[in-house]
Fold this protein.
Amino acid sequence: MTKRDFYEILGVKRDSSEDEIKKAYRKLAMQYHPDRNPGDHTAEERFKEAAEAYEVLRDREKRERYDRYGHQGLRGGYGSGPAARDFEMDLAEALRTFMSEGIFGEFFGQAAGGGRTRDMKQRGNDLQIPLKLTLEEVAASVNKKIKLHRYVKCDSCAGSGSARGSQETICPTCRGTGEVRQVSRSFFGQFINVSACHQCRGEGRIIKNPCPDCRGEGRLEGDKTIAVDIPAGVAMGNYLTVRGEGNVGPRGGPAGDLLVVIEEKEHEFFERHGDDILYDLPLAIPQAVLGDVVEVPTLNGKAKLDITPGTQSGKILRMRGKGIPHLNGYGSGDQLVRIVVWVPSKLSLKEKELFLQLAETEGVKPPKSERGFFSKIKEALF
C-alpha cells in the first residue's frame, strides 16, 4: 500500500515551522482520538496516520531524511538503527505519541505525568531564496556561495537580550513555565484551558535591563555568506533545506532553516525535457543528402555526430548519456539532436541553374503514394 505524504496528512506546507506542525497534529489527534470515535476504524487509522507523520516531522534528523528521500529514506537503505526503520505505527504507539505531547491532560481534563513540557524559546523564521543555475551547473555537482541578509545573534548580549551585567528574572505570573492555565468545572467534569503567558509572551522569563544594541531582542540584522552543495540533476522548482541557516530566534531562540529554491537559466542551445536535452542541428541540403560527420555542442564540450546519407529534416538522433544525470540515482539522460535541413532563401544565377538541373532528375522528387491519405483512413474504418 502506497503511503500518503506526511505533510499532506497533517495539512501543512513543506516549509512549516515545528510549532505549525505540532499545532496541526494536535488538531487531528483530538479529532480522531479513539475515545471520541469508539468503534470507528477509519478514525483509528487516521489517528495512527497522523501520529506516524508527526513522529517523523517533529524530529529534525528524520525530517531532513524524509525531505531528501521521501518514505524510502526511513528504511534501512538510507541509514541504520531505529530512525531508519519503515514506520508503521500501531494504536498503542500512536497513543503514546499523543500522551507524550502533554495533550492527554488537556483532552481529558487531568494531568498526565507531571503536565506539559515545552520549549519556551521562539524559533526563528525560515528563509527562502532562489538560486539560478545554468544547465552545465545542473549537470554537474557544484558548490555555490550564497550571501544571506538575515537576523543573527547579537554579540553584545550573546543573544540573551539582557544588557551586560544584568540578568533576566523568572516571570511572576507563570513562574517560568511560559503558560497560564485556567481550570473550570462543569457537570461533565474538569476542563483546563492552557494559553501563553501574556506578561512574558510565553518565554517564562522577563528582561528588566534590555541590551542597548538589540533592544532586548537578542538579535540584529546582518550578512553572512554560506556554501551550499548542489547535487547533479536538480530541476526547476526543486529545493534544498539547509538546517539552521535561517533567521535566529529572539532571545536565544534556535535558528530557522534556509530553503534554496532551484531556478534554471535559459540556455543558448539546449532545451530541457526531463533529464534529456534537445538540440536543433541545422544542415545544408548536400549534408543531409550525402551524409557528413559534424561537430555538435554538448554539456561537456563538443562531440562528433555521424549524419547518414538521406537524413530527413525533423529526424531525431540520440546521443546516449549526454543529458542530465538522474537525481539521487545512476546514469544520465540523453542528448536529442533534431535535424533541421536549411533551405536557402536567396540564390545566385549559377546556384539557381544547378537547382533547376537537379529538379529535372527523378532522384530528388518525393515518392508518390499509391493511395491517398484519406483512402487509407476510409479503408481502416470501413
Summary: The radius of gyration is 33 Å. The first helix runs from residue 6 to 10. Residues 76-86, 102-119 have pLDDT under 50 and may be disordered. The domain at 1-117 is CATH 1.10.287.110 (Helix Hairpins).
